[in-house]
Write a structure and sequence with these properties.
The complex is a heterodimer of chains A (243) and B (553). With 243 residues, chain A is an alpha/beta fold. Chain A has a domain of 146 residues: 3-Layer(aba) Sandwich (Rossmann fold), CATH 3.40.50.300. Chain A is built from 9 helices and 10 strands. Chain A is globular. The model of chain A has no long low-confidence stretch (mean pLDDT 86). Chain B folds into 2 domains: 235 residues, no CATH class; 233 residues, no CATH class. Helices cover 78% and strands 0% of the residues of chain B. Chain B has 22 helices and no strands. Chain B is globular. The C terminus of chain B is likely disordered. The chains are: A alpha/beta (243), B mainly alpha (553). At the A-B interface, helix 2 and helix 3 of A face helix 1, helix 4 and helix 11 of B.
Chain lengths: 243, 553
């Protein structure tokens, strides 16, 4: 469903992503993990066609994001790390705009259910400017769920959410997985990633250092079953400073 | 297209609804509206002439010189418009657009079309201002070029021509913004070419006079290179030549329409460049809302140094001296702005005064005083920035064992030093030229004026402490008004104490009396500001630089 093939991305003289390849299948949640500056957001932004890859291909539902970005993006729902809602648009108008942009106005019948699950129904007529950080995050997620996307890309979706919101969002992600969608989730919350994701991709300085299920990582690192993803993550990404 | 039309409509409707339901939000809008209205009103009244009166008299302007001047102005506008495409302005979308429009399946061309109305509005607004200024100038110098047998063109011809010309160059600028990846390099090349051309033109003008300038402006290369500007200039000149050129206007119209074509033909992925511009502009806007200090910090954060610099400076002094030293170290990272330019400016000011006196006796002192007063506005702005920064980092400084007034003095150390540097070097340079009254000018500039300005900076500091919500523009307007109100009594006292000197015709008595007075004011205000500083409620964000100071203590 989502294929990243030999992705390279350079900013000035620095390589943010180097020769990254991975895929996300239908009915799968893949966690994109890595320390700060590992290239997670750059990768997700390339997938969302916000950044132009220096080299490599990204296919969304079979469409190349560089060659046919409109068709590719029709299959994609993207939630940025820090969503900035339109200050002068109400919550409901955000959903209407997104539905109109994806030409899926008929999906607005689900708006009430989505907003109620995310505790936004009472705020449906409030302007974006009056929403708290958590509410902004929930609004961005609601906008992502309103159209029938096949691929979901979330950049740190759980940051700023209250415990109830986190739980609800996780359950919505799992529902989408059951419906056969492909989900790519970048996160720093390793315990959540361990429970939620079918596979994880670990990046370090723009390079892929490990990929697979938690069990596969155990086998690769020859660690015991009691070793957590956090331990493995730290082992894979640890920097040993020269003395 | 429909989605973006709905988006624009909802945004406008909700913005208007909010504006009219919250009268406080109308205050800045009304203020700007009245300023523009009053400017237009006074400008228009100034242009009205009584019957039989002919302004400053009939100006006999050579039509060719006038035409060349208008064309030169249009070239300036063209270069300026194109350069906007090489900066952040044209590609900067709102961060909400970046998050909601860019990832959506809306074609990049449609997103560009969504940008076009604001471009058109900018073109219309800029040209309306230019047209207004043009009419003010031609009426003030009363230019008229009788042209028997010709008919006056319709009044809107010239204005529409300029609007189309500016719009055309904005479209080209947008094309460049979308298409060119290394915009910074192109911007530098354009500026370098422009400066070189200006220098060459000045050289030709110097060597051959006005005829040289006119012949350059009439050269076919220049006319073809800036053909839309040439057509717009002809349209404007025709207004005073009483001639009509509908063909030129038609060409400009088609040129405007065609200039949008390359912009929409290209399917470049400009989102990446746009995101970088949008993020920079968003950071700058956030900072602008938070006051001058944050604005300057945001600008400085975008400056990339090619080399590496050693930022850690060893601590020096204790208590307030350590704080002042930390401020000086921070200011030392921008040595040109903080220390070198006041020095060069001061020397330039003093030398200019000396040259002025050599030309016409008595002009020099006026020049020096006027320049110093003008520069003082910049130093007051720098002091305001320093005061705002101090308010933001009060949470860090307040626990330190430093007295309030000492803290205020340390916080204002840099603007004081820059201002003193300018004034002292202006006075010294003037003295070196040996112009008349140099001892008085030297004393006035090096002693009296810095003391006076230092006292005013402390007064401003108190006002910044009193109105610390820098994002509230209404509060900031109020603070500005209150500052001027508070300054009035000080000015009245200065005026009263200057009376004996005026009666005795003694500059020295006046200078010494007023300097002693300023010392008193400064001490009084420092104590007051210290108390205000101690009592004020901490707000704002901490600044890392001052951890150095807190660790020492």
């Amino acid at each position: 469903m989502l294929q990243v093939q030999n992705l390279w991305k350079r900013f000035g003289d620095a390589w943010a992503v180097e020769d990254l390849s991975f895929h996300v299948n239908s009915g799968e949640i893949v966690g994109l993990l890595g320390p700060n500056g590992a290239g997670k957001t750059t990768t997700i932004r390339c997938v969302a066609s916000l950044l132009q890859p220096t080299e490599g291909r990204i296919l969304l539902d079979g469409h190349d994001v560089s060659e046919d970005p409109v068709a590719a993006k029709r299959a994609l729902a993207f939630v940025p790390e820090v969503p900035n809602p339109y200050e002068m648009l109400t919550v409901m108008e955000h959903l209407r705009f997104v539905a109109a942009a994806y030409r899926m106005e008929e999906e607005l019948v689900h708006a009430e259910a989505i907003l109620r699950r995310l505790d936004l129904w009472e705020k449906r007529n409030e302007l974006g400017v009056s929403l708290s950080k958590g509410m902004r995050q929930k609004l961005a997620c609601a906008c992502a769920f309103i159209h029938q996307a096949k691929i979901f890309c979330f950049d740190e979706p759980l940051i700023g959410l209250d415990p109830k919101g986190m739980r609800e969002l996780k359950s919505m992600l799992m529902e989408r997985r059951e419906q056969g969608n492909a989900l790519l989730v970048s996160t720093h919350m390793l315990d959540t990633a361990e429970r939620l994701c079918d596979r994880v991709i670990i990046l370090k300085r723009g390079k892929l250092v490990a990929e697979g299920t938690v069990q596969e990582l155990h086998e690769k690192l020859s660690s015991t079953d009691g070793t957590s993803l956090e331990d493995m993550f730290l082992e894979l990404t640890e920097e040993i400073e020269p003395v | 297209m429909r989605a973006l039309a709905l988006l624009s409509m909802w945004k406008t409707r909700n913005a208007l609804r909010t504006l009219f339901t919250d009268p406080r939000k109308l205050v800045p809008a009304l203020f700007i509206f009245f300023v523009i209205l009053l400017s237009l009103l006074f400008g228009t009244l100034g242009l009205r002439q009584a019957p039989g009166q002919s302004g400053l008299g009939e100006s006999k302007v050579d039509p060719q010189v006038f035409d060349a001047a208008v064309f030169a102005a249009m070239i300036l506008i063209a270069v300026g418009s194109i350069d906007t495409g090489l900066g952040d302005g044209l590609l900067a979308f709102g961060m909400s657009d970046v998050d909601y429009v860019f990832p959506s399946p809306i074609s990049r061309r449609v997103v560009l079309a969504y940008r076009l109305p604001s471009l058109t509005f900018a073109a219309l607004f800029s040209s309306a201002f230019l047209i207004y200024m043009y009419h003010v100038v031609i009426r003030v110098i009363n230019i008229d070029m009788p042209n028997p047998g010709h008919l006056d063109p319709p009044g809107w011809y010239g204005s529409v021509g300029v609007a189309l010309c500016v719009g055309l160059y904005f479209n080209l600028a947008m094309f460049l913004a979308v298409r060119v990846e290394n915009r910074r390099l192109l911007h530098r090349l354009l500026i370098a070419a422009f400066i070189t051309s200006t220098v060459l033109l000045a050289l030709i003008g110097y060597m051959k006079g006005v005829t040289g300038f006119v012949s350059v402006m009439r050269s076919p290369i220049l006319e073809w290179a800036f053909y839309p500007g040439r057509l717009a200039a002809t349209g404007l000149v025709n207004e005073v030549r009483h001639a009509s050129d509908p063909r030129g206007l038609a060409m400009l119209f088609w040129g405007y329409v065609l200039s949008a074509v390359p912009m929409f033909l290209t399917n470049s992925n400009y989102y990446e460049q746009s995101i970088a511009s949008s993020e920079r502009v968003a950071a700058w806007r956030r900072a602008a809302k938070a006051g001058l200090a944050a604005q300057q910090a945001s600008r400085a954060a975008n400056v990339k140094y090619k080399g590496t610099r050693e930022y850690t400076v060893k601590p020096f002094g204790r208590g307030p001296l350590a704080l002042a030293w930390a401020h000086l170290c921070a200011a030392g990272k921008r040595p040109y702005v903080n220390f070198l330019s006041p020095l060069i400016g001061g020397i330039g000011c003093g030398v200019l005064g000396g040259i002025g006196n050599a030309g016409l006796d008595g002009v020099g002192e006026v020049v020096v005083v006027l320049f110093t007063v003008y520069a003082s506005m910049g130093f007051m702005a720098a002091a305001k920035t320093a005061s705002e920064s101090a308010v933001r980092r009060r949470e860090l400084i307040a626990p330190l064992p430093i007295k309030g007034w000492e803290s205020v003095a340390a916080n204002l150390a840099v603007p004081w030093l820059s201002m003193f540097e300018f004034c002292a070097f202006a006075g010294l340079a003037y003295a070196v030229t040996g112009s008349r009254h140099w001892p008085e000018v030297l004393f006035g500039l090096a002693v009296f004026f810095p003391m006076r300005l230092a006292a005013r900076m402390v007064l401003q500091y108190i006002l910044v402490l009193s109105y610390p919500d820098f994002s509230d523009k209404v509060q900031q307007f109020l603070a500005m008004g209150v500052y001027y109100l508070c300054a009035v009594p000080f000015f009245v006292v200065e005026l009263v104490l200057a009376i004996p000197a005026i009666l005795l015709h003694s500059i020295w008595i006046g200078l010494i009396t007023l300097t002693v007075l300023q010392i008193g004011f400064l001490a009084l205000l420092l104590l007051g500001a210290g108390l205000a500083n101690d009592r004020s409620v901490a707000s704002g964000e901490p600044v890392r630089l001052f951890r150095l100071v807190s660790k020492r203590s």
